[in-house]
Amino acid sequence: MAVCRRVPPLLLLLMSIVLYVHPIRGQKLPNNAIVKSVVSVDVPAQNQGGVAAGINGPVVVALPPRKRTSGWKLAEEGACRDDLTRLCPKHSWNNNLAVLECLQDKKELLWNYKLNLTTDPKFESVAVEVCKTTINDIKECATEERGKGYLVSCLVDHRSNITEYQCNQYITKMTSIVFSDYRLICGFMDKCHDDINTLHCGSISTGEKDVHSQGEVIACLEKGLVREAEEQPGAHAIRDECKKAIMRVAELSSDDFHLDRYLYFSCREDRERFCENTAAGEGRVYKCLFNHKFEEAMSERCREALTTRQKLIAQDYKVSYSLAKACKADLRKYRCSMDTNMPRAREARLSYLLLCLESAVHRGRTVVGECQGEMLDYRRMLMEDFSLSPEIVLHCRGEIEAHCSGLHRKGRTLHCLMRVGRGDMAAIDSLCQKALQTLIQEADPGADYRIDRALNEACESVIQTACKHIRNGDPMILSCLMEHLYTEKMVEDCEHRLLELQYFIARDWKLDPILYKKCQGDASRLCHTHGWNETSELMPPGAIFSCLYRHAYRTEEQGRRLSRDCKVEVQRILHQRALDVKLDPELQTHCMTDLGKWCSEKTESGQELECLQDHLEDLVAQCRDVVGNLTELESEDIQIETLLMRACEPVIQSHCHEVADNQIDTGDLMECLVQNKHQKEMNDKCAVGVTHFQLVQIKDFRFSYKFKMACKEDVLKLCPNIKKKVDVVICLSTTVRNDTLQDTKEQRVSVKCRKQLRVEELEMSEDIRLEPELYDSCKQDIGRLCQNVAFGNAQVIECLKENKRQLTQRCHHRMFKLQEVEMMDPELDYQLMRVCKQMIRRFCTEADAKNMLQCLKQNKNSELMDPKCKQMITKRQITQNTDYRLNPVLKKSCKADIPKFCQSILNKATGDSELEGQVVSCLKLKYADQRLSPDCEDQIRVILQESALDYRLDPQLQVHCTDEISRLCPEEAAAQEQTGQVEECLKFNLLKIKVEGCKKEVLNILKESKADIFVDPVLHTACALDIKHHCAAIPPGRGRQMSCLMEALQDKRVRLQPECKKRLQDRIDMWSYAAKVAPAEGFSDLAMQVMTSPSKNYILAMIGMGVCVLFLFGLLCGRITKRVMQELPGVALNCPPLTEPHRGA
After folding, report:
1. Could you tell me what percentage of the chain is helix, strand and coil, using 3-state DSSP and rounding each to the nearest 5?
2. CA separation for the pair 223, 245 (Å, rounded)
3. How far apart are the first and last CA of the chain?
4. Taking 80 as the threshold, does the pLDDT of residue 188 lie above it?
5. Are β-strands 58-60 and 38-40 bridged in parallel, bridged antiparallel, or unpaired?
6. What is the C-alpha separation between 141 and 252, in angstroms, rounded?
């Protein structure tokens, strides 16, 4: 420790002289105090070293009061009088400057005293006497060679282990002497001579500098050491032996800040200002000053000195006395300095110590509280000042200068670099990114948010309001803040700081302490992880967490699942990180290009992932896979979509709380939200989010978890190589429909798949966008005809149905196919099922799903029928009557009759357009002719009854009579409730109808009404009582009851109801009119007209007379012809004679 050369002996008591230069242990003195120390000094004659010959007598050292008079002389002061008398010439006493010059010349005397004091063998013998027990305990010192000052040096090195009080006091005083000048430190000047000169740290000649300035040489060397570590421009490579000497000096001065001369003199005033009540020793003053380093009142010189000290601690943790002492046992216990694979210098680094001990803590090992407290302080220190991390200074220099200049306090620079690292400002160098990631691991702010001072200050108000139920410093504080991200309680500054930190935590799963604690076993078993403080360059950021969440959602059949506790934590992290795409390392890494290309304008929270999902087909392969995997996870656990869950909170609480409370979500919650998408609790944000997820799901059947799990085997067997969900649904539903129509004994699609398939089909029917082919085909028509119609509730589909005559051919074809499916399976008719929901419960609870519309039609005219539902049923009836293919019951009942009687119409038909009721009209006419099969006749009768009440149910009438109805029957057509008034109006105005097509249709109506009274509801209602009284025994159908009433009308003995009589007479008149204007289309029509004519007897008599005349004429012509033929020669007659002679004649 001391300068190792032989000098004349000095007395131990001279040591007290130093007290006037350097007060020991920080004793605070009043301004007017005088401290005296009277010492008897006996100095031998001047030796070769140039020390003064002798100083005898008492020496009084005093600190005089500060108050001085104008005639004050230094020589008159009691504290200086004896020294001046002894050391300075008499003629200089009256001149203060001369006195100062004299004393300045004598400082070499004091320095030589101290030099000799540290190396004198007699002084060493005192040390042996005072520290006898200690020397025996410290083996290194016991074996030191005596007589060269090495023993004292050894004791100073090990003074932290000295427990003997007298020895400790002695070595402490000796340390203060040694550290007052670097030249007194054993071997220091020899080891650092060249570096001092190279770095221009000052002259090493004795006496050139003041005592208090000698610490600047060591400070200069320390700064040089820091510059070298940071690889600053112009940095000098300090020799290894000098480096060790510098660090050793720093270590030895770590307990008492007085021993760091440069820092002591730089921070004297700051110590008084900030640490007045902090006792010196055990590094307490250092820690106090570190805590106030960024205070506004801290002097710049002191802040600089403190920063240098901290940088040395970063290079060697032993430079911090309190840290080295508190963690000594734990370092040894967990073998934190036993790694033979690393150089010794690295083992001493603060970062290595922190990582090693943090690893022990995270593994559940015990680290004493005092050590953990020290670690917390230094982790906070690293986060506060980026310059303490050489790698940050070295690799992030460009980013700091470009984006973060001027932000050097309270962690602001580090957070600025984090913001750059997130990509919010510019691209960041990979080495800088790695340095930031390493620093975050060293500081480990995820374990205690208070370590990050910038975050702590920014989020204090949020923590006090939103997270006040969590213990201060608990790791769950960060989780709580994430849960309140983008809520009303979150403030903007906190949001930024939080996302900046979470970006780096997300890239190393170990930095979330709760996740690491719960999942370290699973990660080791399933993902082959390393220890907490071990990293693999080959492992991409976020890879371990990706591995964990892939296993979190595996089924028991797939095997190797996560433990329950780990799965809960993985789900928590997924829910939180879904708020920002940059918190998913895999997503950001593979999708950076696509984010810039497709989503540059999507800056709001959650929009970037939605944008990527919208452009799924356009993404590059790797990005598409990542987005697809994440979407697949969302389908199983929609709570990952945190923003959507917040928006849907009201409807979840009202309608889906049971499935939401389940710990294991298997797609039930999203299914519930879809089913309740139009409840009153549903807000726009939630509805939009749910619809968006539905639109994403149609791109891949894997995105519908329940559908995937129920149908994956069926898809592989029946629909291989089909990926899009809508195509899979069509494939499977077509298979189900074909099997049903063909009455196969065993359905090819499994029961569980059919059940889920029904759910998917019903969901798709709600929004045209969920059927991409239909939507693409009709996009132009939607913009033209349904521009202001909302997509939900199948409103756009309904709009297109109402405007089908104006649709483009492509859209019309698709809509026809859709209606065909809906009529076969009315449950897929979303609007019908929605509007008639209550009526279905009232009338059709026992009806099969496929017969739902039939049931509603049968109850349409019930007094309990809801008007809106009735209107919707009428719309569907109108649609059905436009084409027999849209009426499955009619199609099935008349499958033999249609090709038999209406083949000419079928030949002209196309597969993608309606027949406009031509086939139905054809069948109606055959019904009047009573030529239909019984089943078909029943169906046509119902159609005739319905269309007789509402002209809109007769497509051909509408096609041909629209203008005539507007001209002749406007009031009847405008009536809300159609009860046959329009048909009655047209019948009465038959002769006024100008359009031939319309006239023909009205004539057909009249013809049909003659076939059966049931198809004339107006007449049937008027004559209901008369039928009951006079025709009860006559079965309905084939015009039998109509004939009965006609006979009753002609029978004067029968008295019919006036209304019935009037209506019947009207019908007879109408038929007369019809007979006049309607040409007979065939012999049957002619016969019918004759039979129904009032003059049928006359007509029949005339027909009979004509037949007789024709017969007689034939007889006459026949005989003449025969005679002529007989007279012709050579003609053989083959015909027998008209009259054959009697055989007996």
Report:
1. 65, 0, 35
2. 14
3. 179
4. no
5. antiparallel
6. 16
Give the span between the Cα atoms of 203 and 503, in whole angstroms: 51
Q: What is the pLDDT of residues 110-148, one digit of tens each?
A: 545 555 555 566 667 777 878 878 887 787 787 776 765
Q: What burial class does residue 980 get, using C-beta atoms within 10 Å of its C-beta: 0-12 exposed, 13-18 middle, 19+ buried?
A: buried
Question: pLDDT band at 692, cuts 50/70/90?
Answer: very high
pLDDT tens digits, one per residue of 510-564:
899 999 989 988 888 888 887 666 665 557 778 888 889 888 877 655 666 788 8
pTM of the model: 0.70
Half-sphere exposure of 451 (CA within 13 A, CB side): 27
Residue 1087 vs residues 322, 927, 1002, 1083, 1096: alpha-carbon distances, Å: 124, 17, 20, 6, 10
Cβ pair 24, 17 in contact under 8 A: no
Burial string for 396-408 (b: 16+ CB within 10 Å, else e) reads bbebbeebbeebb
Give residues with Cβ within 8 angstroms of 1024, minimum separation 6.
none
Q: Which of 114, 112, 187, 192 is nearest to 150 (CA)?
A: 187
Q: How many CB atoms lie within 10 A of CB 650?
A: 14
Using alpha carbons, select from 355, 380, 403, 549 the residue that is nearest to residue 449: 380
Give tens-digit pLDDT for 23-76: 333 333 333 333 333 333 333 333 333 333 333 333 333 333 444 444 567 777
- In angstroms, the CA 734 to CA 727 distance is 10
User: Which sign does the torsion angle of CA 89, 94, 96, 97 carry?
Assistant: negative
Instruction: Report the C-alpha gap between 929 and 1041 in whole angstroms.
Output: 16
Locate 224 and state its tokens.
């040089």
Burial class for 289, CB neighbours closer than 10 Å (0-12, 13-18, 19+): buried
Other Cβ atoms closer than 10 A to 611: 17
Spatial contact of 119 and 147, defined as CB atoms under 8 Å apart: no
How many whole angstroms separate alpha carbon 212 and alpha carbon 20?
A: 12
Residues 6+ apart with CB under 8 A from 535: 441
Helix, strand, or coil here: 410? coil
- The encoded tokens of residue 654 equal 């009202």
Amino acid at position 814, single letter: R
The span from the CA of 995 to the CA of 986, in Å, is 12
Q: Do residues 799 and 785 touch, judged by C-beta distance below 8 A?
A: yes
Helix, strand, or coil (residue 42): coil
Q: Are 178 and 185 in contact (CB under 8 A)?
A: yes
- Give the single-character DSSP code of 40: E
Which residue shows structure tokens 């990050």? 452
- Between CA 882 and CA 246 the distance in angstroms is 100
Length of the chain: 1145
Q: Average per-residue pLDDT in the chain?
A: 81
Surface-to-core class of residue 205, CB atoms within 10 Å of its CB (0-12 exposed, 13-18 middle, 19+ buried): exposed
pLDDT attached to residue 34: 30
Tell me how far apart the alpha carbons of residues 1145 and 1142 are, in angstroms, rounded to a whole number: 5
Concatenated DSSP letters for 729-775? HHHHHHHHHHHHHTT-SS-SS-HHHHHHHHHHHHHHTT-GGGSHHHH
DSSP run (H or E) holding 58: strand 58-60
Q: Which pair of structure tokens corresponds to residue 989? A: 């105005």
Q: Round to whole Å and give the CA distance between 715 and 749.
A: 9
User: Distances in Å between the alpha carbon of 672 and those of 340, 657, 698?
Assistant: 60, 10, 18
Angle at 335 between CA 332 and CA 337, to 5 degrees: 90
Tokens read off for 610 = 């939605």
Q: Are 890 and 903 in contact (CB under 8 A)?
A: no
Q: Which helix (H) or strand (E) holds 1116?
A: helix 1096-1127
CB 738 within 8 A of CB 720: no
DSSP letter at 60 equals: E
